[in-house]
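User: I'm putting together a teaching handout on how multi-component assemblies are represented. Below are the sequence lines for each component of a complex, exactly as they appear in our records. Could you produce the 3D structure of the whole assembly as structure tokens, so the students can see both representations side by side? Please keep the chain order the same as the input.
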Amino acid sequence: MSHSSDPARVLETRGLARVEGEGAMRVVVRDERVTEVQLQIYEPPRFFEALLRGRGYTEPPDITARICGICPVAYQLSACLAIEDACGVAVSEEIRLLRRVLYCGEWMESHALHIYLLHAPDFLGYPSALELARDHPDLVERGLRLKKAGNAILTTIGGRAVHPVNVKVGGFYRFPEPEELSALLTVLERAREDAIATVRLVAGFDFPDFEQPHEYLALRTETGEYPLESGHLVSSAGRSFAAQSFDEYVSEHQVPWSNALHARLAGGLYVVGPLARFTLNSAGLTPLARGAAAEAGLGSECRSPFRSIVVRAVELLHACDEAIGILGTWCGRGAPAVTVAPREGTGYGVTEAPRGVLYHRYELSADGTIRTARIVPPTSQNQASIEDDLRSLVQSRLHLDDAELTHRSEQAIRNYDPCISCATHFLDLTVDRGA
Amino acid sequence: MSRTLVLGLGNSERRDDGVGLAVAARVAASAPPGVLVRAVRSPLGMLDIWEPEDTVVVVDAVHGGQPGSLHVLEVTRDPLPPQLGSGSTHAFGIAAVVELARTLHRLPRRVVLVGVTVERVDDGAELSPVVASAVDEASDVVLRAAGITEPGARPLDRRALPEPAAARQEG
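Assistant: Of course. Below is the structure of the complete assembly, with chains in the same order as your input.
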């Protein structure tokens, strides 16, 4: 953090902590007005889009899983959905349900990590999880238990905790054995108690008075289930469209300060992720999660980015509860995968990654060679809205000193749990404001 | 039960950031049965695997020094430099995870870090030649640090071992 000698006041943080990776941000204030906000993001998906061209149609789940160590399942399942769409194939119900359970594991792990190790320190007044662990080891232990329980799902069903190898186009290489699922259920039942305690913990945090009007975009399922592995897109402005129309509604624009593309929904700012999913789909939560949300004070919509930690906790509980519910009756009687034969065409896949809508599109030739690929990750969709939050937040809190304003800005970025493993590389924070 | 773990960290799509995975794959091809070798994308994943009674060797890409040079740190007793790992793509660097484990009394009885200095960490799956050429020696260092081979033992015959790129499927 530093002050410049020009008429601008400068706040600078080299390396923003507690986001998944690193990036850069710059805020300029002149004459008590925020004139410029820049979030700089580096985007490996662009590299992967190029890498996928010319590869075989069965390869995207394995290749794209390497984009992100936090959400490999999201990349795999969006890829599977898009390839299966291109090839005109639908998977069986038992495969679909097992995919949901696998995805629940990823949500649990990702949300537990963010809530306890990255975001809770902001609300409890600690610079990091390490200091939090010194004073409240029980809290951090609970977060680690929840993360490990999510990991247990990934290991049991996905075959490996990082980059699950059991997922393939058409389903799975093998279904888990009943005894494996029985052991998993025992782990999840304990995790559910931890998840309930998590909602109660974060509901008691103090939240700044700050709301934003952004349009929310999330999947909605035909079955009424909370959105995860399939569905069509709906928005808080009343839009409703299929994955096939994603490119018509969502456009991407280059901005000079970032090599990431900024996404716009019908030309406007929008938000994907927990706040959007909850506001558009809270009726699809399990009764336990819905009850916890009500107890935590969440209404039918949540407009406060800072309360995203509460929504994330509710989703953590939902994911655990739904996984238990599915596994209680699931049995793999059929084939673990359906046959997917290549054909010429274009396929579209959208799933709900922990951070929000993740879009894949593949154009295949008749022999299954990938002609083009497009991947739109959630963090690049939220990027412009994060900048808008920072603009509003800094403008309304110019009376704060530099350190406090920098801290609030960092916290505002963390509200979105930006997945910089798949969206940015180095994140430095600079606030430059008129003296 | 006391175990010996070798944990490879990194991202194989960020060139030299994947060197820890390449070394772990080499170790997996030559380590005796009973030695658990795992690829871990995020240092926090180590907390899901290790137990206090384990001996753990962590191998990862590091900055500093000549590209391809090796660094061995006994981290069990002394705090690591906090910046270690903070320049990587990991949200929690190794130092933060080790200190978190120490605070929570979850640190294994012995943790050794074997670091390989990177040359480049941009997009791409191939290791730089200078870093790739350090993989064999690094895996020998890991095996010695894990107590699998005696200090000063002859390097293993590598001719029968798989190429790192194929073995990287482990990660």
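A couple of points students might notice: Chain A touches chain B through 35 residues (CB under 8 Å). Residues 93-124 of chain A form the longest helix (32 residues).
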